[in-house]
């Protein structure tokens, strides 16, 4: 498709020629066709963004319009009709034409309509391009993953996307929980409806209910008009509740009603409001521990965790680090127009070997900082932040020498986990932090070694199997 290309279709050769002259003088590239049959062939081969066609021809303009609709051609159509047959032009617009002009032609009016139609077509093309980029970004196949653990998460997310089940995404800060939530929405039946994201920890506690559920005029001082809540704004689409663990208990009650009954109570309203939303929640906190502490409702937890997804931190999926570094580095170079900057092998080795406690978000920020602050085209180890360029001393060896007779790795792992749990009196969160693994990984390995004992471990085992 060539920009500013117009196909003029008319069986009057002299009028075709005059329109060609006028349009070319205005800066357009013009192709001519004498009837609908010839126009269909040119449309199939050249795909012009704009067609100006007479309605009354041996193969009529209406038939041409029907061909464009059937073939799903991204082409805008202006119809030309005699002054006394405007009804035909209106019918053509009902069938997909953009606008019409009447004979005898006012060429100033024709050029004005053509300019507006071309601007519309260019805008539609931009929207299609942006939508295509969005499709690519939020396709599960487009999310960077090579590690088995993360591929398993993506497989689960892709399967649940097709259903309307509530999803709870758990993982450390910066692991990409919102990216997974958006991908689930984008690949669901609700993809053409709103995706409304709310950070529950960013809303002041005294404003949570009005922000989420809205209010009626006069509900309180300052409520001078009705206010639509964020939940209702997501009607028909997906509501993403980030950092759900920060939601106050009184708001948790109303959220539970939404999940159970599909309705909300606005502040100051006498009757509930029906809402059709799919809820996806995310948190970096241990909701089960919060349930035990009484800071999170148990019934809400089980309503949210219909399909639990756990995103492992980067340090537990090291196969993904080189791919993520390459993608984020290239993306940042393009964003800042600095395509001549590259990473030295030494710098790359340091970046790959770093633990990335802030996960993908930290990686993205570090790479952008390196690019925008670089004074030369090659980023070396000397340019890296201190914590990456000169990592802290490695943990001391547990044994001065390995025994000659060999050693059981399984037995060593079981012993280390047992001792860590004993050190912290069975507290799995503290033991996991001590061993530099996630609590979910600790629970998995405890189960593998038959160490699931005590009430905390038993509850956790039920959680991981859910």
TrEMBL record:
Modified residue annotations for 4-aspartylphosphate: 54
Cross-referenced SMART domains: AAA (SM00382), REC (SM00448)
Cross-referenced Gene3D superfamilies: 1.10.8.60, 3.40.50.2300, Homeodomain-like, P-loop containing nucleotide triphosphate hydrolases
Superkingdom assignment: Bacteria
Gene Ontology MF terms: ATP binding; sequence-specific DNA binding
Keyword ATP-binding belongs to the record: yes
Keywords noted in UniProt: ATP-binding, Nucleotide-binding, Phosphoprotein, Transcription, Transcription regulation, Two-component regulatory system
Pfam family, one: Response_reg
Residue ranges constituting the Response regulatory domain according to the UniProt record: 5-118
Keyword Nucleotide-binding (UniProt): yes
Boundaries of every Sigma-54 factor interaction domain copy: 143-372
GO terms under biological process: phosphorelay signal transduction system; regulation of DNA-templated transcription
PANTHER family the UniProt entry points to: TRANSCRIPTIONAL REGULATORY PROTEIN
The protein's name: Two-component system, NtrC family, response regulator
Source species of the chain: Terriglobus roseus
